[in-house]
């Protein structure tokens, strides 16, 4: 019988062996065995009276327990110790915690159904159903709620006289997944086999049907190496009209003497030599001495010594096919000729189409130009109608007043006092100037519309032009008691057309006189404005202290489409043509005109001219 130290040594060797070998499939049995040995050795300690030996063996047992803990935590399998009465987990190894995906503190003290076999709560196979659990497939729940498959074993053990359940389990989730995938693949494969079998059956039926339908055009044969037919299928009767017996002779007896058949004989000779030939054609007499064209596919037959013993072949009657091909080729030749003719006709059509397209394009351009001209003409006619509507009324009115005053002077000039006569002559002068201004504007506008307004740019002194306009309207200035201030520099020259500058200033100053009350001031000035880095623009301004223009009327004063005229401060009438003419003259010369005005505060008219 071995001594106790020797038994401890053997126990340590067993533990090391388990760690080295890692035999996990029966780990519960090993642990149970180790546990029993440890109990046995603990009992053996009672036989030793020596306190020193007792301490030594206790230290050895502590060391053994550490080895046992190392074994439990080194295996990949899960190990759980469970109270069988409460199903509370008492201890757990690292392998189980890894499968649970939880910490030790989250598992110890909890019911085992929370982690292992969740569907068996209340009906534990071991404690409730009194069954044995060995290599049984169960389920495990991870922290994320995922279900994994495990292979579980359960052993009943006692520790210090108290019963426990020792559960060991291995993760077989991957195996189950693979089994599931294999099952799906197997079912799919079985389905494909069934489908393929069905297709093959259908193909076989189609093949049989095809052979049956083609039997009138095909027959099979076999001849020996001398060229004598040993076998011919019954369908030769349908193709050539010969019986099987009649056809069993040398194959050349049925051939016509022509180059095609000479080549066919050479192909058969090569087949007899064991050389595989491509399908070839030949001409043959049928039983009624008609010439048929056949397509032949044949192969040499070899014995076990690789020696040619016969030639097998299948014959297809292609006479009708050849006739159809010849007909089709003839038709294709005719179609080719017709295509060449059509090609020539198409080329001629393309030339005509190109010419037509060019002409259509020219016509479209002409139509577009005509449309543009028509729109312009409509616009001009509209402006003309509007213009003549304005002019006819105002010109008739002014000339009528002129005639009335002239007649009155002619009839009663002897009865008038000097003051009355001067008043009449003053009114005649104003009417004459106003009518003259109207006629000048009319002539200038008509030349502009007809494209006959020729410009001649030169250095023009702006100050002198303003003074010339002052002389022209001096009577109006004095009559209304107004002041015209010329703040233009006497040295200011611009490169522009004199008549345009004069006409614009005349209309703007007359307009200011008309809408400025007695005692008002009209100021003409200029300013420089930087347009770009190397360019400065001169802006000319006519400012008055008159009645002003409302915002709603500002857009009307430069547009002939609006029937807009207003009476002056002394009830002076106008046509509205002056500002429209100014805008047209300035814009045709690349400049611009605009106005700033407030009702009751006067107006500022700005304009620029570009040579």
What's the number of helices? 15
Spatially, the strands of the biggest sheet line up as 2-1-5-4-3
**Global morphology:** flat
Helix content: 40-55%
- Secondary structure: number of strands: 17
Q: Distance between termini?
A: 135 Å
Q: What is the beta-strand fraction?
A: 15-25%
Main sheet record: 5 strands, antiparallel
Low-confidence stretches: 18-25
Mean pLDDT: 76
Radius of gyration: 63 Å
Multimer state: single chain
Structural class: alpha+beta
Task: Describe the structure concisely.
The protein has 611 residues and is α+β, with helices and mostly antiparallel strands. It has helices at 4-21, 27-45, 51-74, 94-100, 173-214, 236-240, 244-247, 259-272, 319-412, 418-449, 462-472, 474-480, 498-514, 551-554, 577-588; strands at 78-82, 89-92, 136-141, 147-159, 162-171, 218-224, 229-232, 280-285, 291-302, 308-317, 457-461, 483-486, 493-497, 521-532, 535-544, 592-598, 602-608.
């Amino acid at each position: 019988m071995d001594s106790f130290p020797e038994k401890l040594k053997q126990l340590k060797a067993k533990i090391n062996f388990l760690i080295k070998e890692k035999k996990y499939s029966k780990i519960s049995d090993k642990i149970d065995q180790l546990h029993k040995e440890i109990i046995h050795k603990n009992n053996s300690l009672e036989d030793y009276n020596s306190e020193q030996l007792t301490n030594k063996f206790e230290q050895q047992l502590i060391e053994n327990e550490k080895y046992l803990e190392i074994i439990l935590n080194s295996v990949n399998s899960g190990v759980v110790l469970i109270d069988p009465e409460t199903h509370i987990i008492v201890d757990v190894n690292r392998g189980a915690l890894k499968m649970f995906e939880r910490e030790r503190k989250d598992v110890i003290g909890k019911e085992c159904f929370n982690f292992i076999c969740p569907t068996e709560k209340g009906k534990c196979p071991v404690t409730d159903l009194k069954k044995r659990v060995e290599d049984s497939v169960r389920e495990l729940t991870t922290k994320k709620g995922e279900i994994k498959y495990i292979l579980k074993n359960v052993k009943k053990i006692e520790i210090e006289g108290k019963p426990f359940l020792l559960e060991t389990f291995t993760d077989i989730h991957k195996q189950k997944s693979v089994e599931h995938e294999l099952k799906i693949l197997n079912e799919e494969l079985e389905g494909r086999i069934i489908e393929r079998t069905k297709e093959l059956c259908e193909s076989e039926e189609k093949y049989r049907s095809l052979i049956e339908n083609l039997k009138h055009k095909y027959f099979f044969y076999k001849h020996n190496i001398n060229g004598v037919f040993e076998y011919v299928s019954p369908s030769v009767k349908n193709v050539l009209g010969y019986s099987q017996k009649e056809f069993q002779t040398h194959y050349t007896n049925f051939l016509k003497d022509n180059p095609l058949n000479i080549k066919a004989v050479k192909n058969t000779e090569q087949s007899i030599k064991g050389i595989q030939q491509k399908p070839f054609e030949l001409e043959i007499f049928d039983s009624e001495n008609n010439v048929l064209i056949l397509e032949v596919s044949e192969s040499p037959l070899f014995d076990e010594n690789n020696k040619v013993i016969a030639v097998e072949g299948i014959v297809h009657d292609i006479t009708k096919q050849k006739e159809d091909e010849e007909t089709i080729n003839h038709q294709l030749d005719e179609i080719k000729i017709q295509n060449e003719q059509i090609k020539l006709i198409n080329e001629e059509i393309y030339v005509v189409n190109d010419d037509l397209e060019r002409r259509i394009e020219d016509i479209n351009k002409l139509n577009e130009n005509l449309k543009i001209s028509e729109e312009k003409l409509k616009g001009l006619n509209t402006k003309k109608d509007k213009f003549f509507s304005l002019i006819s009324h105002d010109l008739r009115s002014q000339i009528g007043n002129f005639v009335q005053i002239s007649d009155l002077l002619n009839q009663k000039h002897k009865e008038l006092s000097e003051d009355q006569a001067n008043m009449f002559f003053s009114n005649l002068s104003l009417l004459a100037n106003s009518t003259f201004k109207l006629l000048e504007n009319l002539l200038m506008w008509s030349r502009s519309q007809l494209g006959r307004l020729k410009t001649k740019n030169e250095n023009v002194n702006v100050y002198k032009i303003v003074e010339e306009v002052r002389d022209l309207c001096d009577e109006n200035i004095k009559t209304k008691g107004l002041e015209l201030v010329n703040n233009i520099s006497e040295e200011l020259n611009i490169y522009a057309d004199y008549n345009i500058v004069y006409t614009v200033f005349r209309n703007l100053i007359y307009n200011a006189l008309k809408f400025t009350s007695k005692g008002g001031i009209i100021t003409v000035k200029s300013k420089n404005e930087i347009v770009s880095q190397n360019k400065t623009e001169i802006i000319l301004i006519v400012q008055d202290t008159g009645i002003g223009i409302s915002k709603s009327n500002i857009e009307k004063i430069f547009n002939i489409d609006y029937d807009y005229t207003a009476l002056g401060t002394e009830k002076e009438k106008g046509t509205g043509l002056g500002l429209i003419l100014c805008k047209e003259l300035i814009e045709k010369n690349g400049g611009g005109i605009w106005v700033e005005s407030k009702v009751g505060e006067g107006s500022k008219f700005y304009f620029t001219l570009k040579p």
